[in-house]
Design a protein that fits this description.
Rossmann fold; 17 helices; 42% helix; disordered N terminus
Length: 431
């Protein structure tokens, strides 16, 4: 294979992969054709100067700075170098990272699943080099410019929000009151069970936040979630919810119980570039497998800053978390946007599920969602399952999982424990 490349002018190939054996193998295979430098650390890689004609062969799953962070930084310092992505982790994550690199304006050429197809890799490298040789005589004006601007993702100024009238018959908390409630741990979680259609086994729970107000009693999310977004407190609120959920997961784990917990995150959360590290630190500290955490994002929230969201969601998947697109069918995401994001679950909005037996359009939407989710290699869960007829119809359609009042309402932890014991008792009787 190498003999076919002897006439090619030497150019620089940077290999960024924490696996030293993979680095050695790739170096051995390409060193006769390219000037090869391998890095086991992305931090070390960024200490070198990157030129337009350089080729970067980048592994996504790295220990210090992951591949998505490398993509983001490359977009700031050199968008014309050629980038090849590789990963042995997950095809969906690799695809999303490829789309993300393109969103950032990088000259991303191809992606490779490990184990590497070396003939394909060498063919791709040859084509890149051939393109460089053809462009050598072109001026920068012919090559053009890239106008992509890296989004500002960390700013949130609540003074810029328009006045919003929030209707409440009982109580409208101030920013200070809500901030104090979060700080003093007045938020509690209720858990709504999710069952598999296949065997009615528990596949997880959705964590739903409540506020145990010292004066007004138990307040539901519609009384304070919108306020948290307006006040700029959503990040603190979500952090508290996540910590409560992780703490509960740790307690279950000690008792030998494995239950996946779904947690809702907002638009402000999925544009915070520190979220993947914060979550990874939390699960690592509690010795929880990140695959036991499902993060739910609504379609509308996904659309706020698509490139930044795709960046963060891809990194969350790389770190082992599962992702669910929530309230599907009510937002404005296109199929191409859904395809780019590395979701593992599609949740059909309850407004369609609850009316599917009486409204043919709702039924058609539900059927389409199930088919779409499966074709995109996602599990499909229906929310708002309130009676046996809806359950049976969804099962006939091939839906994977369900949650709703037919199964159980959202329960405080003590009632959930009793419900789980009853569920196990029923399964024992049926076997």
């Amino acid at each position: 294979m190498k003999d076919n490349f002897e006439s090619i002018q030497i150019t620089r190939l940077y290999i960024v992969d924490d696996d030293i054996q993979m680095c050695d193998l790739l170096t051995e295979y390409t060193c006769d054709v390219f000037e090869v430098t391998a890095f086991q650390s992305a931090l070390d890689f960024f200490n070198t100067t990157i030129c337009n004609t350089d080729i970067i062969l980048l592994d996504l799953k790295m220990p210090d700075i992951d591949g998505v962070e490398v993509i983001r930084k490359l977009a700031r310092i050199n968008k014309k170098c050629s980038v090849l992505l590789m990963s042995g982790y997950d095809d969906g994550v690799l695809h999303s990272a490829l789309q993300l690199a393109k969103e950032y304006g990088l000259n991303v050429i191809s992606d490779f699943t490990k184990p590497i197809d070396f003939p394909k890799l060498m063919s791709t490298l040859f084509k890149i080099k051939e393109t460089h040789l053809k462009q050598k005589s072109l001026t920068p004006h012919v090559l053009g410019k890239n106008n992509l601007t890296t989004p500002d993702t960390d700013s949130f100024d609540d003074d810029n929000h328009p006045d919003i009238i929030i209707k409440s018959e009982i109580y409208i908390p101030s920013k200070e009151e809500l901030a104090l409630a979060i700080k003093e741990h007045q938020l509690v979680l209720f858990y709504q069970p999710q069952l598999s259609f296949k065997d009615k086994n528990l596949i997880g729970v959705e964590a739903l936040v409540r506020w145990e107000h010292p004066v007004y009693g138990l307040l539901f999310p519609d009384k304070f979630i919108t306020l948290a977004e307006i006040y700029g407190l959503m990040e603190q609120l979500t952090s508290e919810v996540i910590q409560l959920a992780i703490k509960q997961s740790k307690l279950w784990q000690r008792r030998g119980i494995e239950i996946k917990i779904s947690i809702n995150i907002s638009a402000q959360n999925i544009t915070s570039l520190t979220l993947p590290e914060q979550l990874t630190h939390l699960v690592s500290e509690s010795k929880i497998d990140p695959s036991m955490v499902m993060l739910e994002i609504t379609e509308t929230e996904l659309m706020t800053e698509l490139t930044t969201s795709l960046d963060i969601l891809t990194r969350l998947r790389l770190k082992g978390f599962h992702l669910s697109i929530d309230d599907f069918g009510t937002g404005y995401s296109s199929l191409s946007q859904l395809h780019r994001a590395p979701f593992t679950e599609l949740k059909i909005d309850q407004s369609f599920v609850m009316t599917m037996l009486t409204n043919m359009e709702s039924k058609a939407i539900v059927e389409t969602c199930i088919l779409l989710g499966h074709n995109l290699n996602m599990e499909v869960i229906a929310e708002g399952v309130e009676n046996e007829d809806v359950w049976n119809e969804l099962k006939r359609m091939g839906c994977d999982n369900a949650q709703g009042y037919f199964i159980a309402k959202a329960l405080p932890i003590d009632q959930l424990s009793s419900w789980l014991n009853e569920l196990n008792y029923q399964h024992t009787l049926s076997t």
